[in-house]
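Worked example 2:
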Amino acid sequence: AYEISACLVGSEMCIRDRSNKSFDKFLQTASRNPRCRQLPLESMLIMPVQRIPRYVLLLKELQKVSPIEQQKSITDAIKSLDMLLSFFNESTRMISERSNSVKKLSVLRSTVSGVGDLQAFQTNFKKEGDAKLLNENCQPKKSIYIFLFEDSLLVAKPISKSKNIIMKARKKFSSFKFSATQVIWLEDYTIIKGASSSIRFVKKYAGKSKKNSLLIYGWENSALRDSWFDSIKNKKDVMEYEKLRSSVNSL
């Protein structure tokens, strides 16, 4: 659909590299054209979609002066446009999240060592923050830093200042702030709230190996723990989007 394509183009233009200097020069020249009113390409692409609310208002005014036999048709048209607008807004939000995720991956490449080419992290980035790795008695073992994606957790440990100084002296990876220690695929674990502001990750199919069969992470307080738990478990946004898309496709 046009509205989704327009959002995607705008998103790609925001996150693309600046290597295509000819195209960049064209955009700058075009934006100075009086007919473009100094608007960037992405703003012009979205204009047809932004007219939808005006059409809704027009139909509502038309409905007030229309005969009874035409009321149902106008009401159906208004509902269809409202649904299309909701779908567009949700698509815009999700595409924006994807754009932010791509930017975040670019930052991760330069700040977290040991994550390879990051090809595994293709879903949306959700949040990041400090946590503690706990033992089975919920006692802190070490400080960690977590990056949460829709389907995975990237667990890292802070690089000490002394190690950073050594790395900088050797002119190796001086921008790194964290070292990756583990990737947790959420579908492989049953995730439950634990004691002492913790979240327990219990592996579903541990087999004979007990390695990583139980992982416990803790936060400073229960409010922080609950926020992370909701972010990890929340699939509502994806479900609502799929429901909207199905409804729009049936129009």
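The chain is about 50% helix and 20% strand. The CA atoms of residues 97 and 140 lie 33 Å apart.
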